[in-house]
Structures are given as structure tokens and as C-alpha cells.
Amino acid sequence: MLLSRRHMLVAGLAFSGLPLAAAPPGLASAAPMIAPALVNRALDALFRHHQVIWSRDIIAIADFALPSSVPRFFLVDILKGTTASLLVAHGKGSDPEHSGALQSFSNAVGSAATSEGAYLVGEAYDGIHGPSRWLAGLDSSNSLAEERAIVIHSAWYANPDVAARQGKLGRSDGCFAFGDQDIGLVLARLGRGRLLYAGRSDG
């Protein structure tokens, strides 16, 4: 029987021998620019899914209450106490009028929408968009992420010049799409076994 990527990631944890420590206490202090309510939800997700999120040095939080024209994807380095803020595109189905603001989340297959919730970051691979990373949805709100092929990848429509020219980024099919200048940083720092939490600070 074929195993899903999520099952393989979980199996990898079982053999890793790494301790399952509590959530890092420094997340809020390392990322003061992120709304406390969203930080708290990310921390809650870290506790709920601690058995599979075995690398806690870096955590990613996407605040989709913010428009696509501003950096709203935060790479929080707990050990260094620093945060990198990056542009990220949302899905077409979450913004059908292409306003530049996410209107709604969806987990439905074929929705081309962004899904809310906690993701386990998986293996790197080379796909149609170049270097990318698999994601596994850990919550009921994003449980079909693998079936929908929701991943991290680069896209021309997520470059800063697009936002500068039209006041918003383009839209993905639900994936976390980054500009060419940022994808290397995201793939390198947000590696296997880490948490990516997507939500809204006003939700």
C-alpha cells in the first residue's frame, strides 16, 4: 500500500530520536510585528501537532488578513530572535475578483483557494515551478493539501515588481508562491519537519 507524504514524514519522526520539547518560549518576542492572536494560534498548533513537528528552530506564519502587496509571510528564527518578512501570493479561489485581498479560505479540491491551518513542511523537490517543497495539511481545514498539491514554489507573479506595478501580486492555485528572489531563502530556512501556519490576524 502506498503511503502519503504525511505518513512518511511521521514515520521519519519516529526514527529520528529527537526529543519532543515544548513550544519555543521566544516566538512572540522574536516576531513582534505579527499580531499576537495569530502568534497564539500558531503556538497552539505547535502544541497540538508536536509529535510530527520535530524541528522548532524556525516557524513560518502567514497572515492573510494583510493584502498581497505587503510582506505577510514571516520566517521566525527562534534561536536568533529574528524574523524575515516576505511577499506571498494567495489562491485564485480565495480572491475571485483579484482585489489583492484574501476573501475566504477553502479546503475543497478544485477550489484553487488558500487553506487555513497548520502545515508540516516536507521534502524539497524540483517541479514545474523549479525548486519547491511539499506540504502536508495537519488540520481539518487543510487536510486535502496533499491531494490538491498545495506546495511552496516560486512564481513570476509573486515578484515585488508585480506588486509595485499593479498594487497586488498575482494569484496561485492555492500554493504558497514566492518571488524569484525569496524562494531560495524560504526553501533553505523552512526545511523538513517545521511548521507553517496560515491564518488571519483578524479572524
- Report the major sheet: 8 strands, mixed
Low-confidence stretches: 5-24
Number of domains: 1
Outline type: globular
Stated plainly, the CATH topology is called L,D-transpeptidase catalytic domain-like
Report the CATH superfamily. L,D-transpeptidase catalytic domain-like
Q: SSE order in H/E notation?
A: HHHEEEEEEHEHE
CATH architecture: Beta Barrel
Total number of helices: 5
Q: How does the helix and strand content classify structurally?
A: alpha+beta
E-strand count = 8
Helical content stands at 10-25%
Q: Approximately how much beta-strand content do the residues carry?
A: 15-25%
The strand line-up of the biggest sheet is 3-2-1-8-4-5-6-7
Briefly, what CATH class? Mainly Beta
For the record, give the distance between the C-alpha atoms at the N and C termini, rounded to a whole number. Answer: 39 Å
Mean pLDDT: 89
If you compute it from the alpha carbons, what radius of gyration comes out, rounded to the nearest whole angstrom? Answer: 16 Å
Short overview:
The protein is α+β, with helices and mostly antiparallel strands. The protein is built from five helices and eight strands; from the N terminus they run H-H-H-E-E-E-E-E-E-H-E-H-E.
What do these coordinates show?
With 203 residues, this protein is α+β, with helices and mostly antiparallel strands. It has one domain (5-16, 26-101, 116-199): L,D-transpeptidase catalytic domain-like (Beta Barrel), CATH 2.40.440. It contains five helices and eight strands. Strands 3-2-1-8-4-5-6-7 form an eight-stranded mixed sheet. The chain is globular.
